[in-house]
Amino acid sequence: MGGSFKLGRVRGIEVKVHWTFFLLLAFFAYLGYGSSGSVLGALVTSAVIVALFFCVLLHEFGHSVVAQRLGIEVPDITLLPIGGLARLKSLPEKPWDEVKIAVAGPLVNVVLAPIFFGVALVLGANLLSPVNVLEGTASVGQIFGYLGLMNVALVVFNMIPAFPMDGGRVLRGLLATRLGPVRATDIASTVGQLF
Length: 195
Fold this sequence. Notes:
Elements: E1 4-10, E2 13-18, H1 20-36, H2 39-69, E3 76-80, E4 83-87, H3 95-122, H4 140-158, H5 166-179, H6 181-194
Parallel strand pairs: 2-3
Antiparallel strand pairs: 1-2, 3-4
Helix pairs in contact: 1-2, 2-3, 2-4, 3-4, 3-5, 5-6
């Protein structure tokens, strides 16, 4: 993807970040500074955004590792302000393989969420009291609780059956087992447009 900077290579996959991601960081740093009135607030808010996008990166690696195990080459993962994108060299041939690849990303977030919630509880955070990370006054425990909540949100959002998101790919894969890939894509695309 043009305008992306290479961060490194993991499991033979180039990890890139699109330049617009830095605009997102600057925006949240500005909001953090405006809400807290301090540079520390801006730094904390930026750090939370970086941590959240690290979870997005792990989500994309979930897709990528399963794709690699199914024999599909994954040249790169790019982080964008709207999320991440794992680029597969080819589409899975079997519908169930598409389902496996699509589900793998959200499953990473399903695993991460209770880990973050557990760390938050150990650090004394009240999980029933939401925190505004823009204020820069959140405790470390509250920040872990926030990251747990964001991982739950990533699962819910990604599993909406709106093609080409993960839920839409699951829908297309399941439909393709009965209707074939062309009809399944037509239906999944229509459902995606409704969303």
